[in-house]
Write a structure and sequence with these properties.
Elements: H1 4-24, H2 53-63, E1 70-74, H3 80-86, E2 92-97, H4 100-112, E3 119-122, E4 136-140, H5 145-161, E5 166-171, H6 176-181, E6 186-192, E7 198-203
Parallel strand pairs: 1-2, 1-4, 2-3, 4-5
Antiparallel strand pairs: 5-7, 6-7
Helix pairs in contact: 2-3
Bound molecules: S-adenosylmethionine (SAM).
């Protein structure tokens, strides 16, 4: 069980983050109860938690991303990871979010941060196939292994049409890497234990 000091530190971090949001006129951290989001099956999908700046920094550094790369966030929520990606001057940044309420907030956040080129789609990752422009795919634990399998198959179908080296970054693993290990061509590039168990895979068979 997590200790009292763990919760106190986390609460302190969240309070600080909310007040920083307020100063910039954005909303990444205000709590949203999944059961209050219209049309959202909170038993099926992981609810929104924003990634933290240091987590994205560590993962991107380990992934060896460069300004020629383009990254797509599966389950972008209010766009916190998208904002962190924007600090790296990448070729293209985009994301998809199932919950309309969150996708709308993400769009407003990007406007307020003057990031008009960050592309946000409101929809289900299972139906999204416009991946040609991206070669990095980021997952902060948005869904179950079953949905992850289908999404990886969409990425691999896109690869056949448009071959390039593909990088998968998965933060907060719950067995998702086991599926990647079964597919020829995926090579584990790095495992990190902080932030939470995360992996980076490269695919270029
Ligand atoms: C843990 S949050 C990650 C937020 C964001 N990526 C970040 O790092 O700040 C996971 C998000 O995935 C979204 N999600 C869950 N299932 C999805 C699906 N099938 N398609 C698109 N988004 C989904 C949830 O609504 C939630 O906002």
């Amino acid at each position: 069980m997590a200790s009292k000091s763990f919760f106190t530190i986390n609460k302190f971090y969240d309070d600080h983050a909310i007040s920083k949001d307020k100063k910039r006129g954005v909303d990444f951290y205000k709590n949203v109860k999944p059961e209050n989001i219209e049309g959202y099956d909170h038993h099926k999908y992981v609810h929104y938690i924003p990634s933290k700046s240091w987590q994205i920094k560590r993962l991107l550094k380990a992934s060896k991303i460069t300004c020629n790369d383009a990254i797509f966030d599966y389950g972008c929520g209010k766009g916190k990871a998208l904002y962190e990606f924007s600090k790296y001057k990448l070729n293209k940044i985009g994301g998809i979010e199932l919950a309309k309420e969150l996708a709308d907030i993400a769009k407003i956040n990007m406007q307020k941060l003057n990031l008009p080129n960050v592309k946000i789609v409101n929809g289900n990752a299972l139906n999204f196939t416009e991946l040609d422009d991206y070669n990095y795919f980021f997952f902060f634990d948005p869904f179950s292994v079953d949905i992850f399998k289908s999404v990886i198959n969409i990425i691999l179908t896109n690869y056949k049409k448009n071959p390039r080296e593909i990088t998968i970054i998965y933060m907060n693993l719950r067995g998702h890497d086991k599926y990647l290990d079964t597919i020829e061509g995926f090579i584990k590039h790095k495992t990190l234990y902080n932030p939470v168990r995360s992996v980076i895979y490269k695919y270029n068979p």
